[in-house]
Queue: 4 jobs
Job 1
Amino acid sequence: MARKALTGALASAVLLLSAVSPLSPVSPFSSVPAVASDADGRTAAELAEQAEDNLLDADSVRMTMTDRIAEAEGAATEPSAMDLALDRDGNCVGTIETGGEGDGRVEIVKRGEEVWMKPDAAFWKAQVPGGEGEAVAELLKGRYLHGTTDDPALQGMADVCDLAAFQRDIDTGGSGDAALTKGEETNRQDTAVVPLTSEEGGERTTLYVTADAPHRLIEADQRGDDTDLTLTFEDYDKPVPAGTPRPAETVDIGKLEEELLDV
């Protein structure tokens, strides 16, 4: 296998990771209204603003994302799910899945500037056709690729794993045109929540905010003709797990080219 094949595979992996960054599916507070109905003591606007403030103030959070359209289409080159714990210092740990079930999975660990990334064999085979992806998977033997955010192949991880970048993206300053409708109290994640719903451009967004203080966003759903997304938020301010892969479980990206010369 040529070095070019590995470079292309890594580029595909990082592009997918960047595409599934929590910045991209939905910014849940993109439309905090100026006008909303009043019920049970707090308006929809007040609840949304408090939830936004609490998310913006969080030092860490665990986010999951499910894209049911990507799952149904089964395109192995499209991100369909993620489960990622991340903080404002750029640390993170979690997984990203592509396409439908079994189409590909990437494990991610980032501590400071160091990055560990382990795509499974299904991912490599989908990203690098013609048998080269299978050869990459065999070469890595289930090990993590290890490098830093100075490595071009891993630079995209910096924003994917940075809660501060996500917070900058959703900081609307309290402006917006789409009015929120406050629904009846219900339950999400075994927690009492108040649904806040808005519709704009043919898409319906529902924010599930905890009924009790501190009012926090724990789920955001977006539905439309070409959209079927769910984001969840939990473990506010809980530290990101600090463990990293053992050296025996990793291969340095800089040294991998040397191994490729023997393939």
Job 2
Amino acid sequence: MIRRIFIACCLAILSAETSHLLVQLKPATAQSSTNQNLIVAMTTSIEDSGLLDDLVPVFEKKTGYRLKKVAVGTGQALALAEKGEVDALFVNSPKAERKVLQGGAVNNRRLVMHNDFVVVGPSTVDKAKIQGKKNAVEAFSSIAKNQALFISRGDDSGTNKLEKDLWKQANVTPSGAWYRQTGAGMAKTLQVANQKLGYTLVDRATYIFQKKNLSLQVLVEGDKKLLNLYHVMEVNSQKFPRVNSAGAKAFINFVLSPEGQKLIAAHGRKEFGQPLFFADGGKTEKDYGF
């Protein structure tokens, strides 16, 4: 009789401890399998052009994910990916992206859309004499030669990376009073250029979206070097286990889906009479000669 009571008590204690252990483990398991928070690092031009206002509400409603955007320069976004601190990227510096891709920090890199860069400047006095030029390198050479005020983002963004490449091709090391850096995003840099009557390099979408507040006009456009390609990619969950891989895939699938591509292609048409981006789902850099 005593033996049966002892065994029963042991079984009861074991059952209680097992239940307690399961209660402790259950929340962590549930959180890892149903993480609805998604962190996407993206270039500031995607935010400054208003595109997120069209994409995010539809994405969240369709998938149930809550998207947290980190709008920074592409260089900073790539650095966050290399530390595993974000889940996905939406950026626009192909050369830098390929380097991070080769390093294994990201994967599933896909072309989403494109527009182009333009050089804008004062609508009154074109000190650099670049209006109408089709060669971006020649335009940059002329800006330096005439020491015309140039406002750089100076933030290692995709725009800043292209700018530095154009200076290099023009055999110019920009410095001195005529060259100033904001260390800020595209919208802020445009505002400074507008206030100081300077030149700057800007993606066309942000320029059009901000144009109502600017007196700057497009002076240089149409050079193939000014093509602006945007890619999405996942941060590698095998390298960084905490990454929300399912959420990253859902975001990439959405922006490349017919619905996502339609939203991208339509953005700006109604308000500005022209699209701010051109949808590229199914295409690659090779389609543009890269």
Job 3
Amino acid sequence: MTRASILRDRIVHEIETSGFGARGLHVLAGDETAEHRWAPDERIDVQSVAKGVCVLAAGIAADEGLISVDAPVADSLPGWSLGAGVEAVTLRDLLTMTSGIDLPWSETMMTDWPDLAVEFLSRPTPGRAFQYSNASTYTAMRVLAEHVGDVHAYLEPRLFTPLGIVDTEWERCPNGRIIAGGGLLLRTEEMARIGRLIRDRGIWEGRRLVDAEWIDRMHSEWVTCGESPGYERYALAGWDGPGEGWRLHGAYGQLLIFAGDAVVAITAEDHFGADAVTAAIMRMIAE
């Protein structure tokens, strides 16, 4: 058996023993792959894993010279009414959730105001502080759209098509823009392709799609954000740990777990079991 299949079988046993509501599993170890399914291989909302795709979009645009992630977002939004201190907020601040603007997540945030980005940036900031909110990623992609047009359309030839992910769907807000922090529909194996690209520092089949240093920042530019295991530090869409790896983590158990040369992709329908399964997988990879 290959290392990927051995790891797959151990993860399957853990998932089935714990009762975690997984839909699909894809394991990459070195160049070996192995898969398992508990439900039909249909595209589902990968939730906050989409934040990682938004980070890739910003990295691609920066590499093309279309944006500077460290320029104030106010430069891209002339005429906008900004809250006190927001004039210094950058795209990097939005992607790392450290703008300090207070607008926590809610199920109705996309429809509570005529324009979520306008509302977000109109609020004051006392300085850099972490708050995890889809409003931050949504606003980041609103800023990016000022330079690249529709972000989903921008990514099609630059990311999705090279990865062989065709006819993608991304949920949109009432204003017609991608909701950014979620709403991207992918199959387990399609999410795993994004995982391989990230593991390989932006290279796909010999072609560079994303700058390597930008990929590295997804799991190195840590900001302190809490004390719960696996939620102490956040970077550009990546959570540190638990254990020696890092992950992209979406609601209801959507996971891209990175440790060494291994990438584990899981799609699921189980919000509360994801942390324990992630910790178990990290331990398995480390053994």
Job 4
Amino acid sequence: MTRLTSVTRGLITAVAALLAATAPAATAQAGTEPKAPKDFVTLSSVEPTIIQEMRYHTPHNFVGEPIDGYVQPMCLLTRPAARALHKAQRKLLRQGYTLKVYDCYRPQRAVDHFVRWAQDLDDEAMKGEFYPHVDKSRLFADGYIAEKSGHSRGSTVDLTLVRLPAKATRPYRPGEPLVPCFAPQDERFPDNSVDMGTGYDCFDTLSHTLDPRIQGDQRANRLLLKSTLEGLGFVNLAEEWWHYTYKPEPYQGTYFDFPVSSTSLTSHH
């Protein structure tokens, strides 16, 4: 019994020593995640009434799974961009609309995830909804996927308009039948936004903001979003009706990689 006890005591001591040795290393490893500059904020702290449907935190996107770096479903932006969205929201609320954001700051690791997915030509799980008419081997050449994204600079946002009172959008069910993103609004995945002619992240020329095939209410909705945001310093990406960048960007040429998480923000918030 004494010998067993001493052996057990020795094992406990050894395990304790091992834990003591590895704990600082683990803590150090956890602390190596990059942090956001002090002028990054949560959009909700600047304008809490804007709806947030952060698609890349969910499997409902062109990859079909949550994207690397989206630890929490939240919108992070540089303060100037968030303040400009606040001004846009004030204008739109008076007209019976609210903004809804799909994506804001995007870490480089998320972009890397997109690139790996695009290089895997066998993975076409979400083709039926997001890129029915595009050969996956063309995603880089046609400009739908790139190795860098302006979103990683923190002043670019993907967004839409929702008519008030806003209805809830039902959750996406992985494996559900996919409908092309350019199908009529009552056929494609239900989104509480106004009809913009295509769904979000639709890899198709119909997503070009001023595509002449988009007419009537769909065109009017795109132009309302465009005129409101451009009047406050945002610039639209002509190929994507949902994509806007606030200018001048405070971090032009910088691509951040801190996670989308409240812990990425510094104590200045």
